[in-house]
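Hi, here's the filled form for the chain we discussed.

Project: internal
Contact: R.S.
Residues: 407
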Amino acid sequence: MAQPVRLGRIERDRDADREPLPDEETGCRAIGQVSLLISARGSRLEPDALRGQDYVMTRGAPMLEACPHPSPPPQAREGAPGSSPHSDPPPQAGEGAPRRAATGGWGLSDPSDIDPGDWVGRWLPGWAEPYARLARLDRPIGTWLLLFPGWWGIALAGPRWPDPVLLVLFALGALAMRGAGCTFNDIADREYDKKVARTRLRPLPSGLVRVPQAIALMLGQLAVGAAVLFSLNRISIVLGALVLGLIATYPFMKRITWWPQLFLGLNFNWGALIGWTAVTGSLASPPLLLYLGGILWTVGYDTIYAHQDKEDDARIGVKSSALALGPRTRPFLFLFYGAAVVLWAVAGVAAGLGPWFRLGLAAATVQLFWQAAWVNTDDPSDCLAKFRSNRAVGWLLLAGIVAGHLA
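And the returned structure, exactly as it came back:
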């Protein structure tokens, strides 16, 4: 009879990582209510995309079964699905099947969004890894989504090809400021993150980084961002200073409004204004239209992202557009994305872009409507995949703007 054991958190055994693993052993530490060595043939233990659930470990089952939080798991019955070493338990509804850690013996499923097998875990020294994860260096999609509006603004303002020096400066600034924003957000949300399965193993809620250390990292990131900003013209510096108020208030919006995604859009698309002014030295209607379209784009993709945590958010009292819209999310995604496309189209006309811009915008529109039509808001892994696909939207629109100047 399988005996389930509830675990509070899972952490990689770094000492085991530094030594070759025998054929018969894979090591990891289970830190929480128990600590034990897991034996498996030829496999590494990796986290899965499950969330909102506790870990359950069973001896003799091919993988860990997930039990809903917070009720304790029932003891497996002999002959029940999942109790035989030769049969797989069915996937949990709406969550997707757990990833296998081994064939037979012990298995492990982890809802954390941290992947210990990524480049940060493989290549960085142990002391640096939590800081890299705090800055989200292991997840570059957020940097891309912050960077593209700035690149769009630069390209929209330029007569032909965008200035490569500005492109590089904005890339460095986006990397630094996205890291600073995430660090500040994690400091503000550290108590909430402890209660959300997807985030409770992040550096601050897990205790790998303390608040004073996180503040020091954030100040370093802000210094890099400031160095980039002060290399631009005066009006761009003023705009960069003004956005700090939006950055400072965003982490607290989820406590007071159902639409924190709107405030994220105000933050993440500010670069469209600075990119334009960095080239022209003044504001005009095209970047304002580009900015407004970007806000609606962000509300759409971040609503998809928020569906990953909707059960935990509802349980701990955090607000989001995913909870506000619920089953009405799909038609609102079409509305947000459709309005964004219209605003971008008007921005292109106002900037005098040629017909090739329309081709790039049409391709971006197809990608956005594909997201809205096919996203499964009850499947966290699909929500994450659709969210990440917005990098394609960024490239398509950028290509359209550049091509629109050429023809």
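Let me know if anything looks off before we file it.
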